[in-house]
From TrEMBL:
The keyword Isomerase applies. The gene is LOC120113335. This is Peptidyl-prolyl cis-trans isomerase. GO terms for biological process: rRNA processing. Residues 15-94 form the PpiC domain. Signal peptide: none annotated. InterPro entries: PIN4, PPIase_dom_sf, PPIase_PpiC. Coiled coil: none annotated. It catalyses: [protein]-peptidylproline (omega=180) = [protein]-peptidylproline (omega=0). Belongs to the PpiC/parvulin rotamase family. PIN4 subfamily.
Amino acid sequence: MRRKTWKIAILSPPARHILCEKQGKINEAYKKLQDGWLNNGDKVPPAEFAKIAAECSECPSGKKGGDLGWFPRGEMAGPFQELACSTPVGATSDSNQRIFAHFLF
């Protein structure tokens, strides 16, 4: 009799991001988030984050509002994954330069 093997993937929370090669462009996106919500202590509504991601992100996910969905831990580059998994659900991170580009969640 053959034993069944189960694999369990530990997933990150669903994530949205804005990815830009240049610091100036990510700063522009972050300023829009600050001016609209963050400076008031508010959370950025997902639909509004999606609009800014579609407008500013250089990642193909920008067309989907920056939506990365769920991904298994260990699938993304270390610093990228660390920030994605450490940013509280519903919160927006500061802009960060990691690996090859600037991004925020």
